[in-house]
């Protein structure tokens, strides 16, 4: 019997911490089932074995921060039938996008003994700012079950079932007490997309916005609430400038409090 031809899966890394790639490896038992459905052809985090493209599905972690990254992501797009950006770095520029609001040359001068050797862009941007992306999966890091859902949907030619509502919905569903109401604590939950499973609110901490903006975030209303809680403009700006600082709605709200 002829062996079934499996779709080829590739996993690429750009500027990031590797956490989203590790989320794929954390799938454990599910990873074995996935390996029955796809041929892992390129995944340097897990294996040195490399098969040339084109690839049926490419997962891309990390932001675009160097001239080399720009050329490399264009090549990844060229050899990928479906390109999926995974994680806050790939979908919004990541925590390193804080450079977008500062003097990068000054950072380089202070950090590196020989700054003349550093070849970098002045910005850290999402993959979609450079090439067409078929789907963006949010999170810092991503939710492994959401990743499996996206891969399942892609392999079966259907739309991924990923929630676009706010983190507050997850908190209500789990019976987690609202941090702003009960403790007067700043929380980005009302404007952040669900997906973490109430990780921070579940241990009595406000949401840090790891999954980026929800579908229709009312950041202005939330910022006004932060001010009523006694936060200064600088503190409000800092709240919006974390893992998804360069996502459009968070970036604009941060700029309003600069």
Please tell me about this protein's structure:
The structure is a single chain. The chain has 258 residues and is of the alpha/beta class. The chain folds into two domains: 8-155, NADH:ubiquinone oxidoreductase-like, 20kDa subunit (Rossmann fold); 167-256, no CATH class. It contains eleven helices and five strands; from the N terminus they run βααββαβααβαααααα. The chain has a five-stranded parallel sheet with strand order 2-1-3-4-5, with helices on both faces. α3 links the parallel β3 and β4 (80-86). α10 runs antiparallel to α11. The chain is globular, with a radius of gyration of 20 Å.
Question: Secondary-structure blueprint of this entry?
Answer:
Elements: E1 8-13, H1 19-25, H2 29-37, E2 39-43, E3 55-61, H3 67-78, E4 80-86, H4 88-92, H5 104-111, E5 135-137, H6 144-155, H7 167-174, H8 179-183, H9 219-228, H10 233-240, H11 248-256
Parallel strand pairs: 1-2, 1-3, 3-4, 4-5
Helix pairs in contact: 10-11
Summary keywords:
Rossmann fold; 2 domains; single chain; alpha/beta; 5-stranded parallel β-sheet; 258 residues
Alpha plus pi helix count: 11
Strand content: 5-15%
What Rg do the Cα atoms give? 20 Å
Poorly predicted spans: none
Count of the separate structural domains: 2
**Helix content range:** 25-40%
Secondary-structure element pattern, one letter each: EHHEEHEHHEHHHHHH
Sketch the major β-sheet: 5 strands, parallel
Shape call: globular
């Amino acid at each position: 019997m002829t062996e079934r031809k499996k779709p080829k899966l590739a996993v690429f890394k750009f500027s990031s911490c590797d956490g989203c790639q590790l989320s794929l490896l954390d799938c454990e038992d599910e990873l074995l089932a996935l390996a029955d459905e796809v041929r892992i052809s390129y995944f340097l985090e897990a294996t040195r074995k490399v098969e040339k493209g084109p690839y049926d599905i490419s997962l891309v972690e990390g932001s675009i921060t160097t001239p080399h990254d720009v050329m490399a992501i264009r090549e990844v797009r060229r050899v990928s039938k479906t390109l999926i950006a995974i994680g806050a770095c790939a979908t919004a520029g990541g925590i390193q996008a804080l450079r977008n609001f500062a003097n990068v040359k000054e950072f380089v001068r202070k950090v590196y003994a020989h700054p003349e050797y550093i070849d970098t862009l002045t910005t850290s941007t999402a993959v979609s700012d450079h090439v067409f992306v078929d789907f963006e999966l949010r999170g810092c890091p991503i939710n492994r079950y959401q990743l499996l859902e996206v891969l399942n949907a892609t392999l079966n030619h259907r739309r991924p079932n990923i929630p676009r509502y706010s983190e507050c919905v997850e908190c209500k569903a789990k019976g987690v007490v609202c941090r702003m109401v009960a403790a007067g604590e700043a929380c980005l939950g009302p404007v952040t997309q669900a997906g973490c499973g109430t990780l921070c609110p579940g241990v009595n901490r406000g949401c840090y916005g790891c999954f980026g903006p929800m579908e229709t975030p009312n950041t202005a209303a939330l910022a006004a609430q932060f001010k009523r809680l006694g936060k200064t403009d600088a503190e409000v700006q800092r709240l919006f400038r974390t893992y998804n600082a360069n996502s459009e709605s968070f970036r604009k709200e941060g700029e309003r409090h600069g």
